[in-house]
Each structure stands twice: as C-alpha cells, then as structure tokens.
Design a protein that fits this description.
Structural class: mainly beta
Largest sheet: 6 strands, antiparallel
InterPro entries: PPIase_dom_sf
Keywords: Isomerase, Signal
Protein name: FKBP-type peptidyl-prolyl cis-trans isomerase
Radius of gyration: 21 Å
CATH architecture of the largest domain: Roll
Number of strands: 14
CATH topology of the largest domain: Chitinase A, domain 3
GO molecular function: peptidyl-prolyl cis-trans isomerase activity
Organism: Psychroflexus halocasei
Strand order of the largest sheet: 5-6-11-12-7-8
Shape: globular
Helix content: under 10%
Distance between the termini: 56 Å
Order of helices and strands: HEEHEEEEEEHEEEEEE
CATH class of the largest domain: Alpha Beta
Length: 296
C-alpha cells in the first residue's frame, strides 16, 4: 500500500473549485450535486453495514475496524451508540461528516487542532470496502497537508498516556488512546482528483479508521504564533490568510503584516507559554497584523 504521505498529503485544488472551473480542460461537476449523491451513498452504507474489531497480526496494538454487509441481523452502523456527526463548511457548502468515536482518548491529553501534527495508525477504505491505504505502525502527519475531512475530525479525539519515543525509532504508549472511524464526502476529500493508482474513484466518498496516539501543536514559520491561530478568518483554510498580500500565507510568513518587524517581536510570549497580542495604537488590529504600526 502507498503511504498516506502520498495519498493524503495534498489539499486538493480541485475540491476548492466551482463547477465553472476546469482542470486540464475537464469541466468539474457541480459540488452541491456531488454532495447530495455522496450523502445518499454514505447513508446507504451506514444502513446496510456493520462493524467489528479484528486483531491485527501486523501490529498487536492496532485492532482493525472492519466493515461488512448485514446478513444475520447485525446492528447497522447508523444505529450505533458510537456514531456522531459534525457539520463542516467548505467553499460555502455545509457538509455532514459521520464518524464513529469508539474511544475519545485519555482525558489528560489535549485535543489536537485542525493544524497540528498527529501520530496515528490508519486504514483507508472505499465504500465498496476496498482498502486503498494503510499504515499499521504509528506515523506522524502534519494535518495542514491532509484532506479537510480528516483534519476536521481529529480534534474530536485525544491521544494516549505513557507515550515514549524509543531510541530505536519505536514508540510505546498506554492502552487509552483515541480510536475511531470517519466517513468523508468527496467534497472534503479528493473530489475530482483521487490519487493516481489508488482504488478511489472521482467524486467518491472514502472511509478512514484510525488510532490517535499523540499530537503536537505546530508553528510552521516559527514566529511564535501557533499555526492554528494564523487562521485569521477562522475558516480552517490556512492558505487564504495572507495579511500582507505577499502570496505567502500567514502560517508560513514570519512577518505577517509586512512591516519589516518580525511577528515574534510584535507579540508577547509569557513564561507559561500563553501569548498576548498587543494593540499599541488601539485601532482594533493587533500589532503583528497591523502594517501601520510601527510607523516609520
């Protein structure tokens, strides 16, 4: 199987396009129409399939979540006590993501943000139950480089306790990490451009099962502002936040307002790690986003 770094590591441009755009001369389908088709397909899958846990010979710590068609009165996924939903808005379209929360994770551990780094094991399925990607061993992923449906569900879970990265590259942890599955409509996945060579068809929903072991807050540009806070318009799309208009999004720009004073020098990082954002001229815009301060 290909690694998720190949299959999920692109925020697909096509998923952000309207039906009037074209990709390489191919007219994209209407996103609302695809959304409705996906909703029906996912609902049908949830109503006609059940889940079961299976031991995993590749990794005893990673019990597989397997889906199968109902044949003998098994409980449908749609009726599971673990099934949750979350509404996510992307490109002015409201999507409903169904996900299974078998275990949230340890209460003492943080919820990752949509922009953090997470250590997970996972499997990716099509709705026809074909596995298109898998990592039975824990691997770190930068959520800013992963499809929206995935990074929107990760904050609903927590990691586990007792996490240790060993010198030989292995990791150890307690059996209290987050365990779940998510059913992602194509508008929050690959839309018209699934990974080349995968078993995923264009405009098709996908499923991921996963275990979350650990998360780390990221600061991609090292300016002292955590990446998730660089989402100025709070739409969970970091690439459309470019305060100084230099075509470098804030989360990758160490001088967010372009005033030639580094962002790190226009904020206050306290000893306990909390951050203050001074507004020295009182105009309602913090100094690090205000190109009019300081005046030369």
């Amino acid at each position: 199987m290909k690694n998720l770094s190949l299959l999920m590591m692109m925020l697909l441009i096509f998923s952000a396009c309207s039906s009037d755009d074209d990709g390489g001369g191919i007219k994209l389908r209407d996103a609302e129409e695809v959304k409705e088709e996906n909703e029906a397909s996912i609902q049908d899958f949830l109503s006609t399939h059940y889940y079961k846990m299976e031991s995993n010979p590749s990794n005893p710590n990673f019990d597989r979540i397997v889906f199968d068609s109902i044949s003998n009165g098994e409980e449908a996924i749609i009726d599971s006590e673990f099934l949750k939903t979350k509404t996510v808005t992307r490109n002015d379209i409201d999507y409903e993501i169904f996900y299974l929360k078998f275990r949230e994770g340890a209460a003492s551990e943080r919820h990752p943000t949509f922009a953090d780094s997470t250590l997970i094991t996972y499997e990716g399925f099509t709705l026809s139950n074909k596995i298109f990607d898998v990592s039975p061993n824990p691997v770190w992923f930068d959520l800013t480089q992963i499809i929206p449906g995935f990074f929107e569900i990760m904050p609903e879970f927590r990691g586990g306790t007792g996490f240790v990265e060993n010198p030989d590259g292995t990791v150890t942890f307690n059996d209290d990490f987050g365990i779940g599955a998510m059913f992602i409509p194509s508008g929050l996945g690959y839309f018209a451009n699934p990974p080349v060579g995968s078993k995923v068809s264009a405009y098709s929903p996908i499923i991921f099962t996963f275990q979350l072991y650990k998360s780390k807050e990221t600061d991609h540009d090292g300016d002292g502002v955590p990446t998730w806070m660089e989402d100025v318009n709070e739409n969970h799309n970091l690439n459309d936040d470019d305060t100084n208009g230099n075509r470098v999004p804030n989360y990758l720009d160490p001088d967010d307002d372009g005033d030639r004073v580094p962002t790190r020098e226009e904020i206050i990082i306290n000893e306990d790690g909390t951050i203050e954002f001074p507004d020295s001229n009182g105009n309602g815009t913090p100094d690090y986003l205000d190109e009019s301060y300081p005046l030369e």
